[in-house]
Amino acid sequence: MALAVTSTSAESAQQAIGYPTLFLLVLVGALLPVIPTGALVSSAAVVAFHQTAPFAMALVFVTASLAAFLGDAALYWLGRRGLGSRNGSRWLETIRSRAPEERLAQARDKLADHGVTVLVLSRLVPAGRIPVMLACLLAAWPLRRFARGNLPACLAWAATYQLIGVLGGSLFPEPWEGVVAAVALTVLIGAAPSLWRRVRGTRPA
């Protein structure tokens, strides 16, 4: 009985610290794309998978998707302000610096052909979010239109990486083992497109 109470108290403490931390890190990661937010969501999902607290998985999903949505909306708003400014802005330059010309051209073509669908899929493609966001900015999409397409994108993104975490958590009895597996899988998924482009580029003509 005492052990169960102690376990419940520990889980409550983890939740009180973990969810606000997850929200903050995903929010900052959306603004500054240097934080591996996918790995964070997968790791949080592993921990939630091994908890007995009700709605732990649902809270991870809501926290991650809401933080991603708000972070994207804030970055897009800052980018629009930069486009309207004569001297641009630091945030707009940050977006431009992470959108290679080739990827931006592809994003603009696909956005012109398929509209919001491309925006929804952009968060599921490694390194696809920023070029599509910049394409939306250059196409002068209002924030409201961007937000309508970005909401399902963030929901799908959170669900995908949470599923990766559940898979890692279900394969191993200890949470830390599942976290390692989930992080390794997210890193592999993120690196796969770059490795594929390198392989294609080194093939003889």
From TrEMBL:
Pfam families named among the record's database cross-references: VTT_dom
Membrane-spanning segments: 22-49, 56-78, 153-172, 178-196
Keyword GTP-binding: no
Alphabetical keyword list: Cell membrane, Membrane, Transmembrane, Transmembrane helix
Superkingdom of origin organism: Bacteria
Residues covered by the VTT domain: 43-165
UniProt GO cellular component terms: plasma membrane
Subcellular location: Cell membrane
Keyword Nucleotide-binding: no
Chief location of this protein within or outside the cell: membrane
Membrane topology: Multi-pass membrane protein
Stated family: Belongs to the DedA family.
Protein name: VTT domain-containing protein
Organism: Streptomyces doudnae
